[in-house]
Amino acid sequence: MKENQSEVTQKGGISRRKFLVRAAAVTVGAASLGFSINLNGRGVSAAPAVYAAQGTYPDKPIRLVIGSAPGSGPDIISRVLAERLYGLWGQRVIVDSKPGAAGIISATQVLRAPSDGYTWMMLTSQLHIATEVLPNVKFDLDKDFASISLIGTVPYALVVNPELPVKSIRELIELAKKRPLRYGSSGNGAAEHLSGALFKRLTGANVLHVPYKGVSEALTATMGNEVQFTYGAIPAVQALIQAGRVRALGVTTLTRSAVLPDVPPISEAVPGYQIHGWYSVVAPTGTPDAVLTQASTAVAKVVKEKQFGEQLVALGINLVGSSRGELDTFRIEERKRISRIVKDAGDEIKEIK
Questions:
Q1: 1, 218, 329, 330: which one has the fewest Cβ atoms less than 10 Å from its Cβ?
Q2: For residue 175, how many other CB atoms are within 10 A of its CB?
Q3: Among residues 6, 210, 30, which one has the least CA distance to residue 93?
Q4: CATH 3.40.190.10 domain residues, the chain
Q5: Strands 145-154 and 318-319
Q6: Three state DSSP letters for the chain
Q7: Whole-angstrom Cα distance, residue 151 to residue 87?
Q8: How confident is the model over 47-94, as pLDDT tens digits?
């Protein structure tokens, strides 16, 4: 098996030691989450449930393709999902990493696979954004991929240089209307860029976007006051917040994060403000309806289990475990939201780094 493929074996999953080692370091990519995380390593029962005996699907391993590198946020979530699905089905799930082009490469490969229910893809907000801003994408994300389940959403935190004389979103807006401020991102079209573009449109604040090569560079620039603020996944900024190297003013979701409970949603000061990262599971269009429903039921069941959430708590993910129809609706709403933000950003968005 290729090195970039990870397999959950029929002997009860990867060992606790190997799982913790592989999951220890998580880094941010453009528009994707990055962070350091230690999972609690809780495994599934060695005796799988009799779920698979109730039907013929799945009767062979399922391949779950992700568009990010091993150790990334999608990879960590996919490994945990695969482990727990084995406990439910007694069938292997192979996590296949195909990084590159913000997920375009992985999506293209998935569409070449048979629509038989044995090839899934981790559809993320990163790929969703990429299809809005990259030219000449050869597929239609909405038409070519059928929904299985929304795993969850992840907030970003707006963080400022600690010497900036503001301690709330309202104070930041007031300051940005008095004098121009700069915010950093991991590149044109990245999630942090869109977060700032939406902030600018809804508040009228005078803020200038400054792209960097990655989120870590944008955070370094914020700490050095090259830019006054940036956005980051909570696991990427949590240690910096605790060390006083940046100050968190708000989160981009409509609700507070359990990881940063004292940080309010930006929407409390800016009505209508909402942007987040998210993870979902899809399959090629044409996959039998009954198979999609079985897959959706299983994924949703696993995501809602207490153990699943405990293994991913450090990511700050708001778990959902949706139905197929709920994910369909979510994808439509996200498409409208991102399309509007990209349109408003105009010439600022030229490519995803």
A1: 1
A2: 18
A3: 6
A4: 156-275
A5: antiparallel
A6: CCCCEEECCCCCCCCHHHHHHHHCECCCCCCCCCCECCCCCCCCCCCCCHHHHHCCCCCCCEEEEECCCCCCHHHHHHHHHHHHHHHHHCCCEEEEECCCHHHHHHHHHHHCCCCCCCEEEEEEHHHHHHHHHCCCCCCCHHHHEEEEEEEEEECEEEEECCCCCCCCHHHHHHHHHHCCEEEEECCCCCHHHHHHHHHHHHHCCCEEEEECCCHHHHHHHHHCCCCCEEEEEHHHHHHHHHCCCCEEEEECCCCCCCCCCCCCEHHHCCCCCCCCEEEEEEEECCCCHHHHHHHHHHHHHHHCCHHHHHHCHHHCCEECCCCHHHHHHHHHHHHHHHHHHHHHHHHHCCCCC
A7: 18
A8: 344 443 445 899 999 999 999 888 888 999 999 999 999 999 999 999
The fold adopted by the segment(s) 156-275 is: D-Maltodextrin-Binding Protein; domain 2 (3.40.190)
CA separation, residue 285 to residues 114, 253, 282, 293 (Å): 10, 30, 9, 13
DSSP state of 36: B
Task: Name the DSSP class of 269.
Answer: T
pLDDT in tens, 118-169: 999 999 998 999 898 887 899 999 999 999 999 999 999 999 999 999 999 9
Bridge partners, 248 (sequence order): 159
